[in-house]
Amino acid sequence: MKAATGTGWRPVLSPAIVLRHDRVRDADLLVLPERVVVLTGRAATVVGLCDGTRSVRGIVDELAERFPGAPVATDVPSFLDRLLQEGWLQ
Questions:
Q1: Measured between alpha carbons, how far is residue 87 from residues 11, 26, 40, 67, 73 in Å?
Q2: What is 25-59 written as a DSSP string?
Q3: For the segment 19-67, what is each residue's pLDDT rounded down to a tens digit?
Q4: DSSP 88
Q5: Can you give the pTM of this predicted structure?
Q6: Contact indicator for 11, 89 with CB cutoff of 8 Å
Q7: In 4-28, which positions are buried (b, 16+ CB within 10 angstroms) versus exposed (e)?
Q8: What does the alpha-carbon distance between residue 51 and residue 47 come to, in Å, rounded to a whole number?
């Protein structure tokens, strides 16, 4: 299994998973085959950048530009690793 810190990895959601915004709950969700995961904070922003075209470094750079001073260089790769471990990213 690849690690989020791997230089060539371009994360993308697994085919059976959909990122969706629930207007009723005003919440961002990952819709999986047998459950729904509510994303908090800026998690949906991070997941939304996982389109298979950006490397982890590219995602980190984009977020660092959007959120100056945020600890994206350390937090984002570990978050992506967790999503990979869950099987939600490939």
A1: 11, 25, 19, 27, 22
A2: TTEEEEE-SS-EEEE-TTHHHHHHT-BSSS-HHHH
A3: 999 999 999 999 999 999 999 999 999 999 999 999 999 999 999 999 9
A4: S
A5: 0.89
A6: yes
A7: beeeebbbebeeebebeeeeeeeeb
A8: 8
